[in-house]
Amino acid sequence: MNFSSRTKCNGTLTNGEGCLLARPEFEKYGVALVRSKMMHKEGDWNCFRCGNVNFQIRDECNKCSLPRMDAQSDSFRLLEGDE
Q1: Which pairs from 58-61 meet CB under 8 Å and 24+ separation?
Q2: DSSP tally for the chain: helices H, then strands E
Q3: Residue 66 covered by a domain
Q4: Alpha carbons 54 and 68: distance in angstroms, whole number
Q5: Which of 3, 5, 13, 38 maximizes the CB count within 10 A of its CB?
Protein backbone atom coordinates (compact mmCIF):
# COMPACT_ATOMS: atom_id res chain seq x y z
CA MET A 1 0.00 0.00 0.00
CA ASN A 2 1.41 3.39 -1.00
CA PHE A 3 0.37 7.00 -0.51
CA SER A 4 -1.61 8.36 -3.47
CA SER A 5 1.11 10.94 -4.14
CA ARG A 6 3.67 8.23 -5.02
CA THR A 7 4.37 7.49 -8.67
CA LYS A 8 6.33 4.31 -7.86
CA CYS A 9 5.91 1.60 -5.24
CA ASN A 10 8.18 2.00 -2.23
CA GLY A 11 7.74 -1.63 -1.13
CA THR A 12 10.36 -4.35 -1.06
CA LEU A 13 10.46 -7.54 -3.16
CA THR A 14 11.10 -10.95 -1.59
CA ASN A 15 14.75 -10.76 -2.65
CA GLY A 16 15.18 -7.51 -0.71
CA GLU A 17 15.28 -5.19 -3.74
CA GLY A 18 12.91 -2.23 -4.01
CA CYS A 19 9.70 -2.89 -5.93
CA LEU A 20 9.64 0.42 -7.88
CA LEU A 21 6.58 -0.53 -9.98
CA ALA A 22 4.97 2.49 -11.60
CA ARG A 23 1.51 3.33 -10.28
CA PRO A 24 -1.09 1.38 -12.32
CA GLU A 25 -3.50 3.33 -14.52
CA PHE A 26 -6.58 2.52 -12.39
CA GLU A 27 -8.74 5.39 -13.63
CA LYS A 28 -7.94 4.94 -17.33
CA TYR A 29 -9.11 1.31 -17.29
CA GLY A 30 -11.87 1.61 -14.66
CA VAL A 31 -10.19 -0.63 -12.08
CA ALA A 32 -11.24 -0.28 -8.43
CA LEU A 33 -8.44 1.31 -6.37
CA VAL A 34 -8.91 -0.81 -3.24
CA ARG A 35 -8.53 -4.56 -3.53
CA SER A 36 -9.05 -7.02 -0.70
CA LYS A 37 -6.56 -9.83 -0.19
CA MET A 38 -9.62 -12.08 0.12
CA MET A 39 -10.31 -11.52 -3.60
CA HIS A 40 -7.05 -13.22 -4.60
CA LYS A 41 -7.04 -16.94 -5.17
CA GLU A 42 -3.89 -18.99 -5.73
CA GLY A 43 -2.67 -18.48 -9.29
CA ASP A 44 -4.50 -15.17 -9.86
CA TRP A 45 -2.25 -12.45 -11.26
CA ASN A 46 -2.03 -8.65 -11.19
CA CYS A 47 -1.75 -6.51 -14.28
CA PHE A 48 1.06 -4.03 -13.64
CA ARG A 49 -0.38 -1.61 -16.24
CA CYS A 50 -3.92 -1.13 -14.91
CA GLY A 51 -3.80 -2.82 -11.49
CA ASN A 52 -6.56 -5.31 -12.23
CA VAL A 53 -6.57 -8.73 -10.54
CA ASN A 54 -7.07 -11.45 -13.16
CA PHE A 55 -8.12 -15.06 -12.77
CA GLN A 56 -5.41 -17.67 -13.30
CA ILE A 57 -7.07 -18.92 -16.51
CA ARG A 58 -6.81 -15.55 -18.29
CA ASP A 59 -4.08 -15.11 -20.90
CA GLU A 60 -4.65 -11.35 -21.08
CA CYS A 61 -5.94 -8.70 -18.70
CA ASN A 62 -9.72 -8.39 -18.86
CA LYS A 63 -9.55 -4.61 -18.29
CA CYS A 64 -6.74 -3.35 -20.55
CA SER A 65 -6.28 -6.46 -22.80
CA LEU A 66 -2.51 -6.57 -22.28
CA PRO A 67 -1.13 -10.14 -22.67
CA ARG A 68 -0.20 -11.75 -19.35
CA MET A 69 3.54 -11.85 -20.09
CA ASP A 70 3.57 -8.14 -20.96
CA ALA A 71 1.26 -7.25 -18.05
CA GLN A 72 3.80 -8.60 -15.56
CA SER A 73 6.88 -7.23 -17.28
CA ASP A 74 9.60 -5.35 -15.46
CA SER A 75 9.10 -2.57 -18.02
CA PHE A 76 6.48 -1.19 -15.61
CA ARG A 77 9.28 -0.43 -13.16
CA LEU A 78 10.36 2.42 -15.46
CA LEU A 79 8.47 5.68 -15.67
CA GLU A 80 8.52 7.95 -18.68
CA GLY A 81 11.88 9.71 -18.62
CA ASP A 82 13.63 6.93 -16.64
CA GLU A 83 16.65 5.32 -18.26
Answers
A1: none
A2: 2, 2
A3: yes
A4: 9
A5: 13
Exposed/middle/buried for residue 47 (C-beta within 10 Å: 0-12, 13-18, 19+): buried
For 12, the domain range is 1-74
Please state whether the predicted TM-score (pTM) of the whole model is above 0.90.
Answer: no
Alpha-carbon gap, residue 10 to 20, rounded angstroms = 6
* 27-81 per-position pLDDT tens digit: 777 776 656 666 678 899 999 999 889 999 999 999 999 999 999 988 887 766 5
Q: For residue 24, how many other CB atoms are within 10 A of its CB?
A: 21
First-to-last CA distance in the chain? 25
| 18 to 13, 32, 51: CA distances (angstroms) | 6, 25, 18
Please give the average per-residue pLDDT across 11-32, as a whole number. Answer: 78
3-class DSSP assignment, residue 55: coil
